[in-house]
Design a protein that fits this description.
Order of helices and strands: EEEEEHEE
Distance between the termini: 50 Å
Radius of gyration: 22 Å
Helix content: 10-25%
Shape: globular
Number of domains: 2
Number of helices: 1
């Protein structure tokens, strides 16, 4: 297995903190690195969130404190627990991708809804 790819250490430029990997694998027979980028930047990060909803004094629904979760399954289970166990009016599990380098947040992707939520999450 080790003979299939030649492992080369990258230059010092590749070891900067935004680089994806300081080690690049070269397929056998490839002598030029022209087609390979010196440094691969991290593209996007996906965040998974569980968000509870409660009734406010005017009879409407207001969002609570969002809870970050490590995976989509964990976000769905946390949202279900917020609704069933903790007695919130409703909850939603959603994911969102972000690029911290440029500060861009993409649209939310709703994974699952429980109970009553605002129209934004329907």
């Amino acid at each position: 297995m080790r003979d299939r790819f030649r492992i080369r250490r990258s230059s010092a430029k590749d070891k900067e903190p935004w680089c994806f990997s300081p080690i690049k694998a070269m397929p056998p027979g490839v002598r030029s690195r022209e087609n390979y980028k010196k440094c691969e930047r991290m593209a996007e990060i996906t965040l998974f969130v569980a968000l509870p909803f409660d009734f406010d004094d005017g009879g409407g629904i207001a969002a609570g404190e969002p809870i970050d979760c490590p995976s989509p399954a964990a976000a769905i289970q946390r949202a279900q627990g917020l609704w069933k166990v903790f007695g919130h009016a409703g909850s939603v599990a959603f994911s969102r991708t972000t690029d911290f380098e440029i500060g861009k947040f993409n649209d939310k992707h709703v994974l699952r809804r429980f109970g009553q939520v605002t129209y934004e999450y329907r």
